[in-house]
Amino acid sequence: MEAMIERCAGLDVHQETVVACVLFGPLDKKPKTSIETFSTTTTGLLALSDWLSTLQVSDVVMESTGVYWKPIWNILEGSFHLVLANAGHVKNVPGRKTDVKDAEWLAKLLRCGLIESNFVPPEDIRDLRDLTRYRKKLIHHRTSEQNRIHKILQDANIKLTSVLSDIFGVSGRRILEAILNGEKIETDGLRKMVDWRTKASITDIANAINGRIRRHHRDMLRYHWEHRGYLEQTIEELEKQIDQLLSPYRKEVELLDGIPGVNKAAAATFIAEMGVDMSVFKSAKHLASWAGVSPGNYESAGKKKRVKPHKEIKL
């Protein structure tokens, strides 16, 4: 294999330690090797950075091992050309696996230019990605709480979902809060609770909420209702932070928002996942492949095997 980088390093990353192997020397000769082990504390990683700088390393490669690579990336970013390798693409020969061997193997592959780096967006985009992914999780949790409320209402024989299209709308919230507080809902009070745009009649709604609700039902409804309220408040706070991080990318958000079927929340997710600099992808096909929306190509003995595309982006 032809060497392409004079001074490079391979890092075998773990939770508590990182083994670094540096290969250096003329490209036409066998390189010299230097191996050290560092702690993954901030002090240890700063010592790693100083050690790599002393050896005049230009390129550093590490595997995308869980989240353990992130603090190392944050410390070394800006000082070296970093390469994040897919662990499945750089496996060593079975039976020859040690921390030192793994670091040396990564360095050898990098020296010969045989490792293709994974896409790692800039720091502000990474922060935006954390927020949008957390927002998605909270929305799922909120939906779960709403489903639990539906289940308890059915158990109490309250058929509110049969007369209201959304029991968490204006009318539904007022009625549910009255039920939680143990209020006796009469016809006059029900008229004040129901919004004028509601299609169902007051009589139908009154019959629907005439169930057999017990103290246990009210307690369970209150737990889920309060948790849902907390999730809604947290989602609103996340939305504000996301909007602040998107302020430098208003033009990109407007362009994405102009696509049919894409709203501002989806535009924020697009920017958080793939950034705004499309030059990091070789072509539109490479972007589609990276996003997992195109199937792989597996051919053997002249026959192509069927491969399904990935359902979501995973880094």
User: Helical content, roughly?
Assistant: 40-55%
Assembly context of the chains: single chain
Structural class by sheet pairing and helices: alpha/beta
Average residue pLDDT = 90
Q: Please indicate the percent range of residues in DSSP E strands (runs of 2 or more).
A: 5-15%
Instruction: Give the CA-CA distance, first to last residue.
Output: 29 Å
What is Rg?
28 Å
Q: Give the overall silhouette.
A: elongated
Q: Helix count, per DSSP?
A: 12
Q: How many strands, what sense, and barrel or not for the largest sheet?
A: 5 strands, mixed
What is the strand arrangement across the widest sheet?
3-2-1-4-5
Order of helices and strands: EEEHEHEHHHHHHHHHHEE
Strands, count: 7
Parts with pLDDT < 50 across at least 5 consecutive residues: none
Describe the protein's architecture and organization:
With 315 residues, the chain is of the alpha/beta class. Helices cover 49% and strands 12% of the residues. It has a five-stranded mixed sheet with strand order 3-2-1-4-5. Helix 1 packs across helix 2 (69-76), helix 4 (123-155) packs antiparallel against helix 9 and helix 10 (250-257) packs across helix 11 (264-274). The two termini are 29 Å apart.
